[in-house]
Amino acid sequence: MHDPIPTVTLPGGVTVPALGLGTWQMGEVKARAGEEIDSLRLGLDLGMTLIDTAEMYGEGGAERVVGIALEDRRDDVFLVSKVYPWNASRSGTIAACENSLRRLKTDRLDLYLLHWRGEHPLADTVAAFEELKAAGKIGAWGVSNFDVADMEELFAVPGGANCAANQVLYNLGQRGIEYDLLPWCRAHGVAVMAYSPIEQGRLAHRPELIHIAKAYQATPAQVALAFLLRREGVIAIPKSANLRRVRENRDAVDLRVTENDWAALDAVFSPPERKMPLAMI
After folding, report:
1. Alpha-carbon distance 114 to 57, whole Å?
2. Angle formed by the axes of helices 148-156 and 122-134, nearest 10°
3. What does the DSSP 8-state code read for residue 178?
4. 112 flagged as catalytic
């Protein structure tokens, strides 16, 4: 029996799994669509019922893959997508959302994010998000790749404090947000979504991580996910089109690493002691 996946409660009271499914680089090669769909459906079967995608991924291709994977189980899933910054004017955000909904074959998103900051005023994007929310097209909205100063600016615009989540690069090797952004988001009730939680596989090759993982008969990727699953208010969204890896990701929930071993990893992957520039991919 698996341990249950930890959950994170968003500001509106909706509870989501702290371990979801990413889709970056999906939908780019038609020949791979079948295995991508199968991996998403397996992830849902295993309880990872949050799917994160974006209009940017495969220029809509990832959303189309997700739409097929969700054809008969949309109501089981917390669905997240993102708008390009250059589409994030008031009218552009609404049009982009409609296009995403069409590709996803659904009538609503559960969470809609501004992918990163661009030229359009935050007030216009927020106004569009609030309009979409009032129309039932989205359940909540948030941002991605926002640092503390960006979040403070966002909260200063009308409706800006309704932001439900901030999706940022965060993993064992990229801990800069722990200094200020993660505490800020916790203090303001904003969930943090951690993208590239295994640093696109690079963490799996770190000898220190391999050594500790072996002691638990686990993979380095599982230890890296367990690191994030310990963090309050953090949702990890690993992407994999490999069924074995999807199962491995789910099994990370069952990993029980000792405090001594976490301390050993802290010595190698040091938490920040000062403000760091926000890491991005």
Report:
1. 14
2. 60
3. G
4. no
What pLDDT sits at residue 101?
A: 98
Residue 105 and residue 64: Cα distance in Å, rounded?
8
Mean pLDDT for the stretch of residues 160-177: 98
Task: Give a three-class secondary structure readout of 40-101.
Answer: HHHHHHCCCCEEECCCCHHHHHHHHHHHHHCCCCHHHCEEEEEECHHHCCHHHHHHHHHHHH
Rounded to an integer, what distance in angstroms lies between the CA atom of residue 122 and that of residue 223?
A: 37
- State the number of CA atoms in the 13 A half-sphere of 252 facing the CB: 29
**Tokens 């991996």 label which residue?**
39
Structure tokens at 190: 């904003």
Mean pLDDT of 35-50: 97
Beta-carbon-side half-sphere exposure of residue 108 (alpha carbons within 13 Å): 14
Contacts of 230 (CB under 8 A, 6+ apart): 262
Cα angle 176-233-206, degrees, rounded to a multiple of 5? 45
Mode of pairing for the β-strands spanning 78-83 and 21-22: unpaired
CA–CA separation, 136 vs 75, rounded Å?
Answer: 15
Higher pLDDT, 197 or 3: 197
Contact 214, 186 (CB under 8 A): no
Q: Which of 57, 112, 170, 195 is catalytic?
A: 57
H or E element in which residue 114 lies: strand 111-114
Alpha carbon 268 to its chain's center: 25
Closest CA to 169 of 160, 183, 181, 161: 181
